[in-house]
Design a protein that fits this description.
The chain is built from seven helices and no strands. It is mainly alpha-helical. The longest helix is centred in the middle third of the chain and has 19 residues. The model has no long low-confidence stretch (mean pLDDT 94).
């Protein structure tokens, strides 16, 4: 039930962990920063604190920031809901343009948003 962008961020939290741990990290990420723009302009080490105790915390933080930078630079807003209206093929191509997304994050996002 999350917006597309938040679904992608949650998928980064969820990869290689449990749903409970992902929910906890996701909540911590949103609690530690006043808004998504603050996360986008923060350093990887600052974002990494939200992933404390998870594997690859630095890599997760980097991917979160990369996603936010991509979306913001594309539309100058944190809005990615247009992905819902695309066909599977077009949505897959759109997600492929975002560097550093894992196959898991892409597939989780597609399944959650488009329902494939």
């Amino acid at each position: 039930d999350r917006p597309v962008l938040e679904t992608m961020l949650f998928a980064i939290c969820l990869e290689d962990t449990t749903v409970q741990e992902a929910e906890s990290c996701y909540a911590k990420l949103l609690a530690e920063f006043p808004d998504l723009n603050e996360i986008r302009v923060s350093s990887v080490s600052e974002i990494e604190r939200a992933f404390e105790g998870q594997s690859d915390s630095e890599w997760r933080a980097f991917r979160v920031r990369s996603v936010l930078q991509y979306v913001f630079e594309k539309s100058f807003a944190f809005e990615f809901e247009g992905l819902r209206k695309k066909t599977l093929e077009l949505a897959t191509k759109q997600l492929a343009k975002i560097k550093h997304l894992s196959t898991f994050v892409r597939n989780y996002t597609l399944q959650s948003v488009i329902g494939v």
